[in-house]
Amino acid sequence: MFSGGFGVLIFFVHTTLVLMLSMERMRDTGISLVCRFYVRRAFRIYPLSILLCVLVSLFAIPRSVTPAFVWSPRIFASNVLLVQNITHDPPLNVVLWSLPYEVQMYLVLPFVFMALRRKHWAAILFVFFVVGAVGGYRFTLLEFVPCFLAGAHAWKVSRLVRPLFSWEPWPLLLCLFLAMYCFYQPGGNSRQKEWLTCIALGVSIPLFAECGSTAIAAAAKTVARYSYGIYLFHLPLMWIFYRKLASFPWVWRNLGFGLAMFVVPALCYRVVEAPLIGVGIRISKRLFQGGRTTANRPLARGTTA
Questions:
Q1: How far are the Cα atoms of 46, 64, 210, 228, 283 from residue 232, in angstroms, in the given order?
Q2: Per-residue pLDDT tens for 183-212?
Q3: From CA 55, how far away is CA 69, in angstroms rounded?
């Protein structure tokens, strides 16, 4: 349980860092950047999560391995739209709890990116942290804002300073952060622990060089490619092999589950994710070209840039 929560926090920091790098590679700004970013993320996140919602609904798969299946049209709609944290509906599957926060982060991330490219980025980021922390204490909707901002800090600092250490000690530091996360109990207030963990990650990442091992990098790239399918479908697969097939020998269930954890995410990526990611990229390029054409036209009289 603790290690799973720590993994989600790492993802929040890492995904913000990766998306900041992605926007940097777009070499774009303004409304064109925002539109391209929104389209790409929508085609990246929604297709597979919608597929999970449909399969869970059709086969009455419980939200975790043991609880009973709970469904209603409202719950289904809020899960498809990924707004459960706003409508206060339960996730159809427990792994869907984090996606609404991620999608809502996407709405503001392009603006954070453009703000941090300004001269006084440090002051701007500090204000964002303060506002996010105050809002996170008062509203659950904003609870993870400082976690995502830690990834933005890692991106900005990594563009300004050279790493001080090689990459080899980084896994040991992650283990230290995990131990601190598991054993630090701030009076039942998990927000302090979440924020401190993410801030420690965001500050530490720029201090270490990128991995120099081609084998580790290739393995990490493969895991990253299929990680979304692994994340979404591991609990439904556990329910199938350890609940529905409980009469089968334990060893066969373990082997079947292990094989399914390779096959299902790979199929999801090849059949659903990769094709629709391509669609999102093509649409975003058309938007970008249209934006450039508009931007190059002279402004009408009475309008401002």
A1: 12, 12, 28, 6, 26
A2: 877 655 578 889 999 999 999 999 999 988
A3: 12
- The per-residue b/e assignment along 108-135, b for 16 or more CB within 10 angstroms, e otherwise, is ebbebbebbeeeebeebbeebbeebbee
Whole-number Cα distances in Å, 55 to 33, 59, 63, 102, 264: 34, 6, 12, 22, 13
What is the Cα–Cα distance from 232 to 230, expressed in whole angstroms?
6
- The token pair that represents 248 in the structure block: 């089968």
SS3 165: strand
- For residues 9 and 250, the answer to whether their CB atoms sit within 8 Å is no
DSSP string, 216-268: HHHHHHHHHHHHHHHHHHHHHHHHIIIIITTTS-HHHHHHHHHHHHHHHHHHI
Q: 286 pLDDT band (50/70/90 cuts)?
A: confident
Average pLDDT, the chain: 89
Q: How far is CA 162 from CA 165, 166, 207, 216, in A?
A: 9, 11, 7, 22
Dump pLDDT digits (tens) for 95-105: 999 999 999 99
